[in-house]
Amino acid sequence: MKRFALAGNPNSGKTTLFNSLTGSSEYVGNWPGVTVEKKAGTYKNKKTGAVASVVDLPGIYSLSPYTPEEVVSRNFILEEKPDCVINIVDATNLERNLYLTTQILEMDVPVVIALNMMDAVAKNGDYIDTEKLSKALGVPVVGISALKEENLDELMGAAIRASEASRKGCSFLKDCLVQELIDSLSENYEAKGILNARFHATKLVEDDEIEKKAEPELSEKVSAYKETFKNETFGTDFEAIVADARYKYISEYLAPAETKRIRKASEKMTLSDKIDRIMTNKWVALPLFAVVLFLIFHFVFGEDLLYLNAMGAVDSTFPGEGPFAGLFSNGGIASLGVFLQSLLTDCTDWLTEATRTGMTNAGAAEWSIGLVCDGVMGGLFAVLSFLPQIALLFFFFSILEDSGYMARIAFILDKIFRKYGLSGRAFLPMIMGFGCSVPAMMNTRTLATDNERTSTIRVIPFFSCGAKLPIILAVAGCVAELFGFAHPELITLGMYFLGVVVALICVLLMRHTTLKGETPPFIMELPSYHLPQPRALAIHVWDKTKHFVKKAFTIILASTILIWFLSHFAWNWGYLADEDMGQSILASLGKLIQPIFTPLGFGSQLNGGQNGTGWTFGVAAISGLIAKENVIGTFGTLAASLGHVFDPDLDESAAGVAYVLAIAKDTGITIPGLISFIAFNVFAIPCFAATATAKSELPKGKFKGTIVFWLATAYTVSSAIYTIGSWWWTCFIWAGAFVIALYLIHRYNVSHHVRKAEVA
After folding, report:
1. Cβ-contact 406, 392 below 8 angstroms
2. Rounded-to-integer distance, Cα 319 and Cα 519, Å
3. Which secondary structure element, helix H or strand E, spans residue 42, and what is its range?
4. Strand partners, 128
């Protein structure tokens, strides 16, 4: 089977073309050694019977090794040797897109140019002579519309025909000041028997790091040439000289293939330009984006969509029960995300109870019923209950991305984020963390460097997801009930704000110490606004959610079984009912680690020490490793095992407060201790789903350090909250420690620069 590679600029329609060619046959994975997504699928022509494998290379602007995407695309073409490269070119931005084309054509590989968005060119009244462009480039050129699926079979037919013959790479440079050097190096590469000699020679002249390491002798030849070279405009910047020669060639020989309609003054601004006058306005852009984000999160996670309950317009008991009871939450109309989650939870609860009844009637052992219904199904379904909301979140963010809006926001935020050592691309994954850390971490694949990706993944859990909200609300409600605090919502708002502040501080520290590095230049095309393709949206959502489902049935399933076993068996291997959890292996482990939490306010200082009930807070925190929503459930189970009885008619929110309140009264925990407990759950290791995702998305060798980072941050922040809250004067000690840490970082950076200077 022939194998074709799709290469092109971001937003050129490459992925849309891939989806149209392969349908639902694609395979999604990662390129070896990096977290850049790899897509491969199969093209089938029902009329001719032609079949071909199609690989969707990452979107790139050049083949210089500045980003993981560029290295992946370059290595695939050079080393994997596809039968043909289909270069997707945005026909509405012809000259700029042809820059990458001229680099690909330097390689010894068959190439076909796919002029995409030809329908938009015709709509604008413009014209591109594909035959003239084909003659100028020396390769077939086919006009297509990936969105409307026009001329796709003609494109693949041209690619199949082109793959039948070999092709020699050639240069597309005009008046290049270093052409003589490129020609000489090309001959040197050919003499060594190295394929793609023209491409390698050009890249070596451009001071390409990969080429310099591969051919140090030829690199010395370039250095020697620089010593004798002088130019008033470019100096010895050979990369700029080559780039200038490329654009000169494109302007003189390739651009004439395009004929643009003469536009009136009133037509100079496109519809996208007019929209951008509002969307990218420096005063309006960010507030407008905040409104968009609020609407998305409210539609996905809001329990009172129309604020009917807040206005007292609906009786809190309506409708009570029935098949559509999940549409109403606490008296208000639930959002689509909450409704779908409630519907899925009702189904899984029914399935669990049906299984429990069936196993009981069949005479199954009590421990086996607990294992299947509580350990496997209960733990798995608790995680899967977030699937509808995760899918919806992906759906809305895919709309923002495919429409071209997200590119504008990344551009606007780049100036702000660059101060913290990040690019504007990092904003979207962080904001997605408020919904769920799993899709947020997956979205870091768009970041340019390993260090930027690592620092972003590490702080994403600090943006409190929906699963942490029950913990915050329950503990804040407990503080209000137990200590007469009149405004628990301030605690909730404060924890969200604290998470953002700590995230920014941590990024700043990491980017100046362990994850130092230059923030890569942020180059992004602002594509024209357009309506997303429904089929493409569906494929995007499926691609992301299936990763979550796969993890749910692997590492999450294994972890839920482990936690269930530890919480329902004693050291003598005797099975324990829920009400006897205090005698379990998990409880004993909680008592063992209880002293560790003493500086945090919920350790040995609580009622009775290890012989009392203070260990319950440690056990609750451990149970949150599976899913944060387990924390409040664990409090309820532990409170019941300690003899507390609760009103079965309490709603979920009130029940959570009651559970925490019962444990708090038993242990005698203080307000600083309770707030410290919230902070620990916000900043510590996230749920298993997010932890598993982090492991798969982080660069090699960064996962263990990330676990230590989460624990250290949680411990430090929680300790500061407890000690300052209990003894206000300790704020001066913490401030002093922070200043000393900043001084040590400064000294480290200075000495590091000195050592580098000495080596140089």
Report:
1. no
2. 54
3. strand 37-44
4. 258
pLDDT of residue 758 exceeding 70 = no
DSSP string, 596-652: GGGGGTSSTTSTTGGGTTTHHHHHHHHHTTT-TTHHHHHHHHHHHHTT----TT--H
186-236 pLDDT tens trace: 999 999 999 999 999 999 999 888 899 999 999 999 999 988 888 888 888
- The count of other CB atoms within 10 Å of the CB of residue 219 is 17
Listed residue (344, 343, 431, 429) closest to 381, CA to CA: 344
Q: What amino acid occupies position 718?
A: S
Output DSSP code: residue 594.
G
Residues 6+ apart with CB under 8 A from 382: 560, 626, 627, 629, 630
Tell me the pTM.
0.67
Per-residue pLDDT tens over the stretch 74-114: 999 999 999 999 999 999 888 889 999 999 999 999 999 99
What 3-state class would DSSP assign to 274?
helix
- What are the φ and ψ backbone dihedral angles of 719, each rounded to 5 degrees? -60, -40
pLDDT classification of 386: cutoffs 50, 70, 90? low
Burial of 572 (0-12, 13-18, 19+ CB in 10 A): exposed
CB atoms within 10 A of CB 53: 18
Beta-carbon-side half-sphere exposure of residue 645 (alpha carbons within 13 Å): 0
